[in-house]
Amino acid sequence: SPVDPANLLSPAASSSSLSQQEVATKIKQTHSLTVLLKHCSEQLLAEYVRHQGEPFSSPDFQPPAMAVPGLPSPSVPPEAWLALSDGKRLWHLAAAYAALPGLLGSVRRQQAELNPLASELHRQLEAAARQCRGLAGNLERIMGALGVTGPPPPSSSLGGPTTGAFLAKLGGYHVCRLHRDWAMRSHEALGLLRTKYPL
Amino acid sequence: YPAGRPDHIRDCSLMFFFFVFFFAADPAVISPQDPTLVIGSSLTATCSVNSDLHLKAEDLYWTLNGRRLPPESYKVLNGTTLSVALANLNGSRQQSGDNLVCHSRDGSILAGSCLYVGLPPEKPVNITCWSKNMKDLTCKWAPGTEGETYLHTNYTLKYKLRWYGRDNTCQEYRTAGQYSCHIPKDLALFTPYEIWVEASNRLGVAVSEVVMLDILDVVTTDPPADVTVSRVGDLEDQLSVRWSSPPALKDFLFQAKYQIQYRVEDSAEWKVVDDVGNQTSCRLAGLRPGTVYFVQVRCNPFGIYGSKKAGIWSDWSNPTAASTPRSDRVPGVCDPKSGEQNTTLRRELKQFFGWVKKHAYGCSNLSIKLYDQWRVWLQKSHKTRNQVGKDPSPIPYRGRRAGSSGPSGPGGTARTPPPPPTHSSAAGIGRNRLGR
């Protein structure tokens, strides 16, 4: 069972552990967080490619598809995404945001080696990981209040063999881009929730 | 993952999400991976495509930092391997390495390798150190290279007591600029240290000359505290500066010496007073009346523990401002010669009077002194500095009987001298002489 025993909002209990008002407030707050994430993730991607050099920084950069272990790509057709239930959308968001902080941390460690003087990039990567952790916590609380089961915690498969510098640049690019794509998706999903649970 | 997921989500994932796993093998491999090279050197790299991809060597091309490399530099080594020859490499464009990429014909990226092209570091130079209040040591240095090495260079400051073995490494960097380090504690006095800086990058290490010093020789203090600047009574050209010695060195036997610098509000030029000695006050003289001055004081812990050596000057104290009194506040003592000597008007008048004396007989009493007297009279009677433009009652003067017209009157602007009397019909001048 994916339930954390310390979580008071156990999905096993009824979904009215929080009042309607409290749930609606939490959703609104989380929606604001996704607005911030959308903005910051765009900035992070731009800052990241700037430091890797061409072809990463060129506007028509076409990276090869690449594995980012444990992080699904939200390449879902918009209609299909919208057709999912709130619970399913939240589930996928929770899975992504459980994995993103660790991945962003790995990218920061790699960039500390590749671009040791890019302090602004390092700062933004740390901030992004923090924001993702915050969003993950919020999502957990909302899901608990709505009686939705959460995903299992991500496997810590972030070790892996040390890659060459080019693959590290590429991997970091994918993490930053997925971070942005998921920010857009979460913003969309929370917007939908807000209309369903208005204050 | 798959085991725990409900059925409908598993179905959806096949359609909507794709979980991308590492390629069982990379599509292609570039060799060498991440080489480090000296500027100007050459490199031959190879790209070997995975045979599963059914790509031929002829289908590949290379780019370096996004720019396509010329096909003349390519060579097909076998069915699936293409090499490229790079010559006379420039320094890396970014510190994360130049991106050498192998593409298939449609442009997609198959593999990459980062090139690190630069120069080995040069010995760091100009190591200077100072100790604040004898508690710590901060050192700064300059990188040896004037130009770039193109590779990220790491600096390490090391130090050891001269006659004891152990090397220590400084930990707190960039406390006083990019090339600096701060040693906060555990420093011995009255004994020499050896200090040096090591610079290292991917191409090698360079070690600076060793600097030898005793902490006591490089002591500096905080700037003097409580700097106040005030007027000296009504004196319009003086200001009095007072301060207290920096608190931290009260316990150490030393004599401080001080320096003051001051400037007027709208000038960038500081004047320095050097011979302030040991006192904690000083009077500035020869200043301009009615002017705002900025004043700063700094301290040198001279003669620590009885040594004859000077220490290092502290930073200047924060500027303190004060203004000298305006000169019209001082009744009667106003000597027109002191403030006014340089005005254009006065200079021109002086010239005029000189000319008049030469060309108009009987104007011998005419001189700049008369103008000065007039100005003193002006100030006494009107109590204002400048009455230029106003028309006071005429001063009695002695020149008239001799036929001169006297001073040209209280004009605000200098007038051009009238033409010489022999030719002119200008009123007054020479009339009684020439006219009939």
Report what the structure shows.
The complex is a heterodimer of chains A (199) and B (436). With 199 residues, chain A is mainly α. Chain A has a single domain, classed as Growth Hormone, Chain: A (Up-down Bundle), CATH 1.20.1250. Chain A is 64% helix and 0% strand. Chain A starts with 19 loop residues before the first helix and ends with a helix. With 436 residues, chain B is mainly beta. Chain B has four domains: 112 residues, Sandwich (Immunoglobulin-like), CATH 2.60.40.10; 94 residues, Immunoglobulins (Immunoglobulin-like), CATH 2.60.40.10; 103 residues, Immunoglobulins (Immunoglobulin-like), CATH 2.60.40; 81 residues, no CATH class. Chain B is 11% helix and 33% strand. Chain B is elongated. The N terminus and C terminus of chain B are likely disordered.
In short:
Chain A has 199 residues and is mainly α. Chain A has helices at residues 20-52, 78-83, 86-114, 119-146, 165-196.
Which second-level CATH architecture of chain A applies? Up-down Bundle
Radius of gyration of chain A: 18 Å
Multimer state: heterodimer
Which pair of chains has the greatest number of interface residues, and how are they split between the two chains?
A-B, 39 and 40 residues
Give the termini distance of chain B in whole angstroms. Answer: 129 Å
Structural class of chain A: mainly alpha
Strand count, sense and closure of the main sheet of chain A? none
Structural class of chain B: mainly beta
CATH classification, class level of chain A: Mainly Alpha
Count of all domains of chain B: 4
Q: In angstroms, what separates the terminal alpha carbons of chain A?
A: 32 Å
* CATH class categorisation of the largest domain in chain B: Mainly Beta
Shape of chain A: elongated
Give the number of helices of chain A: 5
Strand content of chain B: 25-35%
Annotation field: number of helices of chain B: 5
Cα-atom Rg of chain B, whole angstroms? 41 Å
**What average pLDDT do the residues of chain B reach?**
78
β-strand amount of chain A: under 5%
Number of strands of chain A: 0
Protein name (chain A): Ciliary neurotrophic factor
Keywords (chain A): Cytokine, Secreted
GO molecular function, one term (chain A): cytokine activity
Organism (chain A): Chelydra serpentina (Snapping turtle)
